[in-house]
Amino acid sequence: MSPATAARSLPPEALLRWSVGVAVLTIALKTLAWWVTGSVGLLSDAMESGVNLAGAAFALLMVRIAKQPADEEHPYGHHKAEYFSSGFEGLLIIVAAVGIAWAGLQRLANPQPLEQLGWGLGLSVASSAVNGALARAMLGSARQHRSMALEAGGGTC
After folding, report:
1. What are phi and psi of 79, to 5 degrees?
2. Closest Cα to residue 34, out of 95, 135, 104?
3. Which fold has domain 20-156?
4. What is d(CA 90, CA 114) in angstroms, rounded to the nearest whole number?
5. Which helix (H) or strand (E) holds 153?
6. Torsion angle (degrees, nearest 10) of CA 91, 76, 12, 149
7. pLDDT tens for residues 34-86?
């Protein structure tokens, strides 16, 4: 069994925990890439990874709530809590877009040369590879488990 297939067989909660860890790793790599190069593009990529971290943490919470059994207030269960995760991801993307636009405008006003592009590109590619593998596993698992939270998280990795 390939690692991607094995990851898809994990329960949604386990994949979302992995998503939190991968988001932290990605933020670290992309922030280091920005620090090394001074590239606003890499800074915006790190900011977007912050969105992934917040989204993954919220999705994990919503999946835990969705697993709760039906009660008097929720006679059909809590499974729709996962939809909040998807909406939250969208809101976070808008917030990140505003931050990225602000950083870009600041750089346009004060241009600076880029440095050590090889290192920055290498760090960025490494983080993208890890993110891509996780996204593939999450999207595959989302179909299998019919999980809106995994689908939203996998689409933003």
Report:
1. -60, -25
2. 104
3. Alpha-lytic protease prodomain-like (1.20.1510)
4. 31
5. helix 148-156
6. -20
7. 999 999 989 888 888 888 788 878 888 887 888 888 888 877 777 777 788 77
